[in-house]
Write a structure and sequence with these properties.
The complex is a heterodimer. Chain A is an alpha+beta fold. Helices cover 28% and strands 27% of the residues of chain A. In chain A, strand 2 and strand 3 form a beta hairpin. Chain B has 15 helices and no strands. Classes of the chains: A alpha+beta, B mainly alpha.
Chain lengths: 145, 262
């Protein structure tokens, strides 16, 4: 994961659900099951679950309600990579919000982009990587300043 | 309990008479205290029976009874016979309300079986012990090894925390506490931290509504960037409590931020 060429598609777990908050626990359950036995410490495990919540809710907030929300998970040597994608009504993910700050803190790599072929309505994407252990910097406030 | 019906009626008439006596006494009449106490004492059995309905859900029986008695006392002090209902009809919901509130305040939803609450506590203690031993937070298999159970059990123990948070934190900030009436201002450092966010205007009142502890946890995690285990050490609670506080508070903030402005 996060290596040149990207993760092998064969290793991916894919889930698709309606773009509604009711389904977010399903997306969270998938990541829990995927990483529970994969060496994530309790901090990273909790962060990954919260990150799925936050990313999914962020997309749902600007989603075209008729478009499905799709999630792809890859478990790799570095950690877990999650990509959430959802058709939008035209808005994109605002990165100057509290929610984005939350996502940045919870994950080790984070990006958002808009994908589309220019004809059909675009889809918003949030993709993040969560490593198995927390960063050194997270154990000491001073080192981040 | 049909066998008790006759007793019950006598009891009921008795109480009605006592409340009549109470109403006839002047507010400063010293006999008031005595009559009030008599009414309370006569209903302790009822309080015990109501408390018993909540047994086996993670709160000690003695505590349950204490809370039910508190409800009983409240009921005695608030009961107004002129409203037309019997004292028992008023006291039972008052005691039930008191018990439910107690469950809410102590955190556990009354729907979580004790066995799961205990599992949650075991996992919580294992995380603390292992973090202490190894100097870093454990992963789930390590916890499973320590507790001699499956990783799925550990997951269950962690996830049942959601029932805890949804009961203690979803409810509005304790409406009875004086703090809830007057939201405190944010600390200057907290103001600085949210200063660059576009949704700060919506965020500020939501943050101010949080308990000082929860706000501090949010601040340390998302503005100071501290890990949960580190915050746990700083705030003096367990990593799992921090985790619960974070996910419940985030949910609350998210709902508040998404809600259309009034």
């Amino acid at each position: 994961m996060a290596t040149a060429g990207g993760p092998a598609d064969d290793d991916a777990v894919r889930v698709s659900c309606p773009a509604a908050s009711t389904y977010v626990p399903v997306l969270r359950a998938v990541i829990s099951a995927l990483i529970a036995d994969a060496g994530f410490d309790v901090d990273a495990y909790a962060d990954a679950r919260m990150a799925v919540d936050e990313a999914a809710e962020t997309l749902i907030d600007i989603a075209d309600p008729t478009a499905p929300l799709s999630a792809t998970y890859w478990l790799g040597a570095d950690g877990v990579r999650v990509r959430l994608e959802c058709g939008s009504t035209g808005g994109s993910v605002d990165q100057d919000t509290f929610g984005w700050r939350v996502l940045t803190t919870l994950t080790d790599r984070l990006e958002t982009d808009v994908v589309g072929d220019g004809r059909s309505p675009a889809a918003n994407c949030i993709e993040f990587v969560k490593r198995r252990t927390i960063r050194e910097s997270e154990t000491d406030a001073r080192s981040r300043r | 309990m049909p066998a008790h019906d006759a007793d019950h009626d006598v009891e009921r008439d008795d109480i009605a008479a006592q409340f009549e006596t109470l109403a006839s006494l002047a507010p400063d009449d010293p006999t008031r205290v005595k009559v009030r106490e008599e009414i309370i004492n006569s209903q302790l059995g009822l309080a015990r029976r109501i408390a018993a309905r909540f047994r086996g859900r993670g709160i000690f029986d003695d505590d349950l009874e204490q809370v039910a008695r508190l409800g009983l006392i409240r009921a005695v002090d608030r009961y107004n016979p002129d409203r037309g209902n019997t004292f028992i009809g008023f006291a039972i919901p008052t005691m039930l309300g008191e018990l439910r509130r107690h469950f809410r305040d102590t955190g556990w939803s009354i729907h979580v079986p004790r066995q799961l609450q205990e599992l949650h506590l075991e996992v919580d203690q294992a995380v603390s012990a292992l973090t202490e031993r190894d100097g870093r937070p454990p992963d789930l298999p390590a916890i499973a090894g320590y507790l001699n159970c499956s990783v799925e059990r550990v997951q269950e123990g962690i996830e049942v925390g959601a029932a805890y948070q949804s009961s203690s934190l979803d409810s509005a900030p304790a409406t009875d506490s004086p703090r809830a009436a007057a939201p405190v201002d944010l600390l200057p450092s907290e103001e600085d931290a949210i200063g660059k966010l576009v949704d700060r205007e919506a965020l500020r009142p939501l943050l101010a509504e949080l308990s000082p502890r929860d706000r501090r946890v949010i601040y340390l995690r998302f503005f100071e960037g501290l890990a949960q285990s580190r915050i746990a050490a700083e705030v003096g609670v367990s990593q799992m409590q921090i985790s619960r506080i974070l996910s419940a508070t985030l949910r609350r903030l998210r709902e508040g931020l998404l809600a259309p402005p009034d």
